[in-house]
Design goal:
A three-stranded mixed β-sheet has the order 1-7-6, with no helix packed on it. It has one domain: Immunoglobulin-like (Sandwich). A hairpin with a 7-residue loop joins strand 6 and strand 7. By secondary structure, the protein is α+β, with helices and mostly antiparallel strands. The protein has one helix and seven strands, in the order βββββββα.
Length: about 100
């Protein structure tokens, strides 16, 4: 809020139904922030569960662009696709730079 353009949030978050289908945000700022239609006061948390596969655009005042996309993918429907999904998730997490939080 002091005018600094710090990218502390990703502009795109991927969730997977049945595995990671809840978005939890906490306002650690000293000022209120808006996420979607919700005004989050300092220290307040927001828990947003998703029950269907979808792509969602949210207003986000904590993000430099003012927008955040939350993509909710269906859980893989057979064992081989689930194994592929788990391997790709492991590779994605291992490829993140040290200190970078996974999305």
């Amino acid at each position: 809020m002091a005018g600094e353009k710090n990218e502390i949030l990703p502009d795109h978050i991927r969730l997977v139904l049945g595995a990671r289908d809840v978005l939890v945000l906490k306002n650690s700022d000293d000022v209120p922030q808006i996420f979607g239609p919700t005004l989050m006061m300092p220290g307040q948390s927001l828990r947003l569960p998703f029950r269907t596969a979808s792509t969602n655009q949210f207003t986000c005042t904590a993000h430099a662009s003012g927008q955040m996309t939350v993509e909710v993918e269906p859980f893989p429907d057979n064992p081989w696709r689930r194994l592929r999904w788990r391997v790709l998730e492991l590779v994605r997490r291992l490829s993140k730079a040290p200190g970078e939080s996974p999305a």
